[in-house]
Automatic annotation (TrEMBL):
<keyword id="KW-0808">Transferase</keyword>
<comment type="function">
    <text>Tetrapolymerization of the monopyrrole PBG into the hydroxymethylbilane pre-uroporphyrinogen in several discrete steps.</text>
</comment>
<feature type="domain" description="Porphobilinogen deaminase C-terminal">
    <location>
        <begin position="226"/>
        <end position="294"/>
    </location>
</feature>
<dbReference type="InterPro" id="IPR000860">
    <property type="entry name" value="HemC"/>
</dbReference>
<comment type="similarity">
    <text>Belongs to the HMBS family.</text>
</comment>
<comment type="pathway">
    <text>Porphyrin-containing compound metabolism; protoporphyrin-IX biosynthesis; coproporphyrinogen-III from 5-aminolevulinate: step 2/4.</text>
</comment>
<dbReference type="GO" id="GO:0004418">
    <property type="term" value="F:hydroxymethylbilane synthase activity"/>
</dbReference>
<dbReference type="Pfam" id="PF01379">
    <property type="entry name" value="Porphobil_deam"/>
</dbReference>
<feature type="domain" description="Porphobilinogen deaminase N-terminal">
    <location>
        <begin position="5"/>
        <end position="212"/>
    </location>
</feature>
<keyword id="KW-0627">Porphyrin biosynthesis</keyword>
<dbReference type="InterPro" id="IPR022419">
    <property type="entry name" value="Porphobilin_deaminase_cofac_BS"/>
</dbReference>
<feature type="modified residue" description="S-(dipyrrolylmethanemethyl)cysteine">
    <location>
        <position position="241"/>
    </location>
</feature>
<dbReference type="GO" id="GO:0006782">
    <property type="term" value="P:protoporphyrinogen IX biosynthetic process"/>
</dbReference>
<dbReference type="InterPro" id="IPR022417">
    <property type="entry name" value="Porphobilin_deaminase_N"/>
</dbReference>
<dbReference type="InterPro" id="IPR036803">
    <property type="entry name" value="Porphobilinogen_deaminase_C_sf"/>
</dbReference>
<dbReference type="Pfam" id="PF03900">
    <property type="entry name" value="Porphobil_deamC"/>
</dbReference>
<protein>
    <recommendedName>
        <fullName>Porphobilinogen deaminase</fullName>
        <ecNumber>2.5.1.61</ecNumber>
    </recommendedName>
</protein>
């Protein structure tokens, strides 16, 4: 009997859905291999009454899983790709970039109104500085409220806090079967997604060739190229949950198109730029786009955002 392979994951509803999806994919391909899921809580799961930006820590939803992976307690860790820091701990690597779901954000409003139709001064809930900055750039009159928690919790807060709308990632809403609650897919021209949003990432021990070969069928080359470029841009800008950065890469007709945005927390300043390159030069393209954004003034915007949250460079 082959050795049991342990799949680590956060134990939130969405994270467990994603881990079970990975489990099902592997079980289909390797019917004689036993797999088991192991759920655990991360720092980001424990601290729910503070905005992510104010916690000021990288790896909020990954660190505990990475420690277990490094110790050999689990064999692979399933993450939302957007939660994975751009700098992984030494000895760990991304074993698979799973095929990306639609990467954008959606609006869930109480009265079925779109972003454009919301009344002046509408109260909108989101956990993301990236969304807040871009939406305030589009609609400076909105009142943004920081809310956290799983999808069910946020939908409850929509009612309890008398909010007009929520902004969430489409992928999470879709995966949990809540498409009927979506009022609008927010145009990507209005709000670029988080780096890696929509993709499931599988982290492994670097050099674990057995697990790497096992995961090869789950790796999607187009998603890998697009997200590698996004992550390279983010890394060059030294971004994370604490700063309002959005990006979207896509591979079309053999070319990689990458767009990035950096905005001030109040939405008054916004810099958006794009680049086109070969998918084989994804990392280089991301770094180049970051340089262009810095030349246009992104550095000062990010410096101000970090200072506002007491983050020292």
């Amino acid at each position: 009997m082959p050795k049991e392979i342990v799949i680590g994951t956060r134990d939130s509803q969405l994270a467990m859905w994603q881990a079970r999806w990975v489990l099902n994919q592997l079980e289909r391909r390797y019917p004689g291999q036993p797999f088991v899921l192991r759920g655990m809580k991360t720092k980001g799961d424990h601290v729910l009454d503070v905005a992510l930006a104010k916690i000021g820590d990288k790896g909020l939803f990954t660190k505990e899983l990475e420690i277990a992976l490094d110790r050999g307690e689990i064999d692979l860790a399933v993450h939302s790709m957007k939660d994975l820091p751009t700098r992984l701990p030494e000895g760990l690597a991304i074993g698979a970039f799973c095929r990306r779901e639609y990467p954008g954000d959606v609006l869930i409003s109480r009265r079925g109104l779109t972003l454009e139709q919301l009344p002046s001064g509408a109260r909108v809930g989101t956990s993301s500085l990236r969304r807040t900055a871009q939406l305030l750039h589009f609609r400076p009159d909105l009142h943004m409220f920081a809310i956290r928690g799983n999808l069910t919790t946020r939908l409850k807060k929509l009612e309890e806090l008398n909010l007009d709308a929520l902004v969430l990632a489409y992928a999470g809403v879709h995966r949990l079967g809540m498409d009927h609650r979506i009022t609008q897919r927010i145009p990507l021209s209005t709000c670029l997604p988080a780096v890696g949003q929509g993709s499931i990432g599988i982290e492994i021990r670097a050099g674990d060739e057995y697990i790497q070969r096992m995961l090869a069928p789950l790796d999607d080359p187009a998603s890998r190229a697009a997200i590698t470029a996004e992550r390279a841009m983010m890394k060059k800008l030294e971004g994370g949950c604490q700063v309002p950065i959005g990006a979207l890469g896509r591979v079309e007709n053999g070319r990689l198109f990458l767009e990035g945005v950096v905005a001030s927390l109040d939405g008054r300043q916004l810099i958006r730029e794009r680049i086109c390159a070969s998918p084989h030069r994804a990392e280089e393209a991301g770094a180049m786009l970051a340089e262009r954004l810095l030349v246009l003034g992104a550095g000062e915007i990010l410096k101000t955002a970090r200072q506002e949250f007491g983050i020292h460079e």
